[in-house]
Amino acid sequence: MKKLVIVFSFAVLAQLLYGCSSKSSASDNAVLDCNNEVSTAIDYSIVSEGYQTDITNQQIHRINKDLQYSEHLSMLPSLSGDIPAINLHEYTLISILSGFSNCNDLEITGIEENDSTITVHALKVRDGTASCDPPPLVQYAYVFIKIPLASAKPISVVFETTSRLAP
Question: CA end-to-end span of the chain, whole Å?
Answer without folding.
Answer: 54
